[in-house]
UniProtKB/TrEMBL annotation:
Positions in coiled-coil regions: none
GO molecular function (one): undecaprenyl-diphosphatase activity
Top-level EC class as recorded in UniProt: hydrolase
Species whose genome carries this gene: Extibacter muris
Family: Belongs to the UppP family.
Additional information: Bacitracin is thought to be involved in the inhibition of peptidoglycan synthesis by sequestering undecaprenyl diphosphate, thereby reducing the pool of lipid carrier available.
Membrane topology annotation: Multi-pass membrane protein
E.C. designation(s): 3.6.1.27
One GO BP: regulation of cell shape
Subcellular location: Cell membrane
A cellular component annotation (GO) from this entry: plasma membrane
The protein, known as: Undecaprenyl-diphosphatase
Superkingdom of origin organism: Bacteria
Biological role: Catalyzes the dephosphorylation of undecaprenyl diphosphate (UPP). Confers resistance to bacitracin.
């Protein structure tokens, strides 16, 4: 693979798309499908899959950096001795519980789903179905006060059930953040707490999936390939920081209906262009 400024621009664009779509509940897979249809990267299929894994790591690192104080389960007391922050430790226990359903289903069915369900029509269908779900749930939620207002209030049972909803995201086009947020809203979790729990849950899930794929494909790259990975990862990281800040500010005053309508439009677009 030779260095090409046009390819660098494509890599930057894909990093931007990943940074935007990974954290908004609009399906990064659906967008990558459309982008890949019109922007053909000059790289092997195996390296392209690795590239998408690495830019996802850039996105998840943005969450770790932005929520470090809230996520890090230790604090330094006298004589620089680390002390466990009980509330944070409990949140991580709940996150681990929420990861169990998805881990089991992914191990059992990931290869089958990758081989048979990564099609434009499946992605279009899930985009539209979950878009409608967001609209209906938010209309229903207008008259309901959340029974779980904060991240710390999420129970072990609720965490596990949110993890069950996350299982749905194994189907392409669903959106991992979309599935967990929908599940949390249905269970009476506030929008802010739903988004924060989604961010926490993303860390072990995405690091785990990335590690599996990196082990699968290996880490032998040319200098140009390595450059593409670094540029894509940094771009996804920077854009993710901006998008997360936007989302957390937006949902303090607004609901998720706009993302539902967007998903429906994107699903129709996928059908028209790729169906």
């Amino acid at each position: 693979m030779e260095f090409d400024s046009i390819e660098i621009l494509k890599v930057i664009f894909l990093g931007i798309v990943e940074g935007i779509t990974e954290w908004l509940p609009i399906s990064s897979t659906g967008h990558m499908l459309l982008v890949d249809e019109f922007i053909h990267l000059n790289m092997s299929a195996a390296f392209k899959e690795m590239f998408f894994v690495v830019i996802q790591l850039g996105a998840i690192l943005a969450v770790v950096v932005m929520f470090w104080k809230k996520m890090f389960p230790f604090q330094l007391k006298d004589k620089m001795q680390p002390v466990i922050k009980k509330n944070t430790f409990i949140i991580w226990l709940k996150v681990i519980i929420a990861c169990i359903p998805g881990a089991v289903i992914t191990i059992l069915f990931d290869d089958y789903i990758e081989a048979h369900l990564h099609t434009p029509m499946v992605i279009a269908a899930t985009l539209i179905i979950y878009g409608l779900a967001f609209i209906v749930i938010e209309i229903w939620n207008r008259k309901n006060i959340p029974i779980t207002p904060s991240l710390e209030d999420i129970s072990y049972r609720t965490a596990f059930l949110i993890g069950m909803f996350q299982v749905l995201s194994i189907i392409p086009g669903t959106s991992r953040s979309g599935a967990t947020i929908i599940g949390a809203l249905l269970l009476g979790v506030s929008r802010i707490a739903a988004a924060e729990f989604t961010f926490f849950l993303a860390v072990p899930v995405m690091f785990g999936l990335s590690a599996i794929k990196i082990l699968k494909f290996g880490i032998s790259f040319t200098i140009t390939e390595f450059l593409f990975l670094v540029i894509g990862m940094i771009t996804a990281f920077v854009v993710s920081v901006l998008v997360i800040k936007f989302l957390m500010g937006y949902i303090k005053k607004h609901d998720f209906k706009i993302f539902g309508w967007y998903r429906i439009v994107l699903g129709i677009l996928v059908i028209l262009l790729l169906g």
